[in-house]
Design goal:
By secondary structure, the chain is an alpha+beta fold. Helix content is about 25%, strand content about 20%. It contains 11 helices and 21 strands. A 6-stranded mixed β-sheet has the order 1-5-6-4-3-2. Strands 16, 17, 18, 19, 20 and 21 form a 6-stranded mixed β-sheet that branches. About 30% of the residues are buried. One of its GO terms (molecular function) is ATP binding. This is Protein kinase domain-containing protein.
C-alpha cells in the first residue's frame, strides 16, 4: 500500500524565523517549535524547475522503509518530512533540524562564533586550523572519512546518491568518534527521481574528468576521493593523494579513476580505512616538567640619602624681576635702533604718534601707523557669459560597469582576506570581466554572493561564488586568488545549487 504524503499550508507553520539562505532558497525555524523541524522555501525562480512528484516521492520514501533503515537514514541526512504549499503552490518542505553536535565553536579575528560544522573548515592548512581554534589530527581525519564512507554505503544500498557531494553540504561532529551528516537532501537522487536538475559545485565536478552521468554511486565515490585527498593535504584543489597515509593511497587513486567502472564501491573503502586507523596511535602526552624553584631574591643594597646642595640667597637690594626688566628694556632699545637704521625701503608712513610705555623700564616705544600706498582697488572682468551650454544626449557616453555588489552568504567566515576577496570578485562584473571567457556567456551580472571561502592566510585562497545575471538566473563558479588576492583562475559556471 502506498504511504500517504503529508502536505501542509505554510500558514499552519506559524511565525517563521530565517536562519540560512543559499542559491536555491531560504531556511526558516518555526518560532513556536524551535526544537522541531525547519522549513526550506524555494526562491520563486527555482519553483519552475521543481519536480513536485519527485519531492512527494522523497517524503513518502521514509514511510516505506523498515524501522531500522528509516532510523539509520534520518540519523545521517536532513531528509524531507512534509511538502509545504503557499497559496496552493508547492514552495518547499519540512526537514529535520541539524543536531547541535554538528555545530562548532570557532574564533575569527579574535571573535568567538558558533558555526555550522561544514567540512569546508577542515580543508585548510594547520596554521589556519590553529588560528580559528579547530583541533584536527590524523586520527580525526581517518575516523571522519570512515564514517562518511559508511554513510555513503548505506545511502547507495537504499538506492540514494548524494550527487552534489561537496564540503558545503557535508557536516562533521567533534565527538570521541567523529560523525558525518548530510544537508541539502533535495539535491540527492532517489532511484530515478531528482527534485531539482542535478548540479555540481565548482572544483567538485565529476564532469571535469569525463562525460558521465551525474548523481550516481560512482560519482559519489569520485567526490569522496576528492574529499579524502584534500582533507589530508589541508587544501581545496589538489587531486594528488601523496599527503594521505600510505595504506590509503591506492584506494584513493582508484576512487579518482576517470572510468566509473574502475572505482570501488563505498562499502569497499571500509577495510583500507580500518587498517589505516589501526596503524595510528594517539600521541603519548609528554610528562609535565617539574616546577623550577624560584630563586631567592638578593637583599637590596642600603640606600644612602642624597645630600642637597643649598642654593645661595639672592643679595639684598637686587630682585629677579628688576634684572629681567633691564634686560627687556635693553633688547627693546636695540630693536628700535636697528629698525631705524635699516628701514630705508617703502614709502613714508607719516609722523610718529604716541607710543607704548614699557613698565619695567619706563621707556616709550614709537607707534607707527599702517602705511597707505594710494593704489586703486582691484577690478575684475568676467569674460564668460553666465549661460551654460545645452548637453546633447547623443554626446553622452554611458560609463562602463565598475563592479557589482558582493555579499557574504550565511555561515561564511573570514578575516581581512574575505574582504579583499569580495573586492576582487566585485571587479569581475566590470573591467575584469573580459579577462575571463568563462564569465562572458551569461554576463552581465547584477550581484555576487560568496557562499564558500577557503584557505585564508595561504598562498592560494579561493571562494565559491554565486553570480546573479541580469535575467535573474544564478550561476555558481569558483574563483582562485594568489596571496595578494588577485584573481588567478575562474572555474566553469553551473546553475546555483
Amino acid at each position: 500500500m502506498t504511504a500517504q504524503v503529508r502536505e501542509i499550508d505554510v500558514a499552519a507553520l506559524g511565525p517563521l524565523v530565517r536562519i540560512a539562505g543559499g542559491g536555491q532558497g531560504l531556511v526558516y525555524r518555526l518560532r513556536d517549535t524551535p526544537d522541531g523541524p525547519v522549513y526550506k522555501e524555494y526562491l520563486p525562480r527555482v519553483v519552475d524547475d521543481l519536480d513536485v512528484d519527485a519531492l512527494r516521492a522523497f517524503v513518502r520514501y521514509t514511510e516505506e522503509l523498515d524501522a531500522a533503515d528509516r532510523e539509520a537514514l534520518l540519523e545521517r541526512v536532513a531528509w524531507p518530512e512534509a511538502v509545504v504549499r503557499r497559496d496552493g503552490v508547492v514552495r518547499g518542505f519540512l526537514m529535520r533540524q541539524v543536531p547541535p553536535r554538528f555545530r562548532v565553536d570557532l574564533t575569527f579575528g579574535g571573535t568567538p562564533s558558533s558555526e555550522l560544522a561544514t567540512a569546508q573548515f577542515l580543508l585548510n592548512p594547520p596554521g589556519y586550523l590553529e588560528k580559528v581554534g579547530l583541533a584536527v589530527g590524523q586520527r580525526f581525519r581517518v575516523e571522519f572519512l570512515a564514517d562518511t564512507a559508511e554513510a555513503l554505503a548505506l545511502l547507495h544500498r537504499l538506492d540514494i546518491a548524494v550527487g552534489d557531494l561537496s564540503p558545503n553540504n557535508l557536516l562533521f561532529s567533534q565527538d570521541a568518534r567523529p560523525r558525518c551528516f548530510f544537508v541539502d537532501s533535495d539535491s540527492m537522487r532517489l532511484g530515478e527521481h531528482s527534485v531539482l536538475p542535478q548540479g555540481e559545485t565548482p572544483d567538485w565536478r565529476v564532469g571535469d574528468v569525463g562525460d558521465e552521468e551525474l548523481g550516481t554511486s560512482a560519482s559519489d565515490v569520485y567526490k569522496f576521493g576528492l574529499l579524502a585527498v584534500r582533507l589530508f593535504a589541508g587544501e581545496q584543489h589538489t587531486t594528488d593523494p601523496a599527503a594521505a597515509p600510505v595504506r590509503l593511497r591506492r584506494s584513493l587513486r582508484l576512487c579518482l579513476a576517470t572510468d566509473p567502472a574502475g572505482r570501488p564501491g563505498a562499502a569497499d573503502l571500509a577495510d583500507p580505512l580500518a587498517r589505516t586507523l589501526n596503524t595510528l596511535r594517539e600521541p603519548t602526552p609528554e610528562p609535565a616538567p617539574e616546577p623550577t624553584p624560584e630563586p631567592t631574591p638578593e637583599p637590596e643594597p642600603e640606600r644612602v640619602p642624597r645630600q642637597r646642595t643649598p642654593i645661595p640667597p639672592v643679595p639684598a637690594g637686587r630682585s629677579l624681576g628688576g634684572s629681567v626688566g633691564w634686560v627687556v628694556g635693553a633688547l627693546v632699545l636695540i630693536g628700535v635702533v636697528v629698525g631705524n637704521v635699516f628701514d630705508d625701503s617703502g614709502p613714508s608712513s607719516g609722523p610718529l604718534t604716541g607710543g607704548i610705555t614699557v613698565p619695567a623700564t619706563g621707556f616709550t616705544l614709537p607707534d607707527y601707523p599702517y602705511p597707505t600706498y594710494g593704489l586703486p582697488d582691484p577690478t575684475y572682468y568676467n569674460p564668460y557669459p553666465d549661460v551654460l551650454p545645452d548637453l546633447v544626449p547623443s554626446a553622452m557616453v554611458p560609463l562602463p560597469r565598475l563592479s557589482c555588489l558582493t555579499e557574504t552568504g550565511a555561515g561564511v567566515q573570514g578575516g581581512e582576506g574575505l574582504g579583499s576577496a569580495r573586492v576582487a570578485i566585485g571587479q569581475l562584473c566590470g573591467p575584469a570581466l573580459g579577462d575571463w571567457p568563462a564569465l562572458a556567456e551569461h554576463a552581465p551580472y547584477d550581484g555576487a554572493r560568496v557562499v564558500g571561502f577557503f584557505g585564508e592566510g595561504t598562498g592560494a585562497p579561493s571562494a565559491t561564488v554565486d553570480l546573479t545575471a541580469e535575467d535573474g538566473r544564478c550561476w555558481r563558479t569558483s574563483v582562485g586568488f594568489d596571496a595578494g588576492y588577485r584573481v588567478r583562475s575562474v572555474g566553469p559556471l553551473s546553475p546555483c545549487g
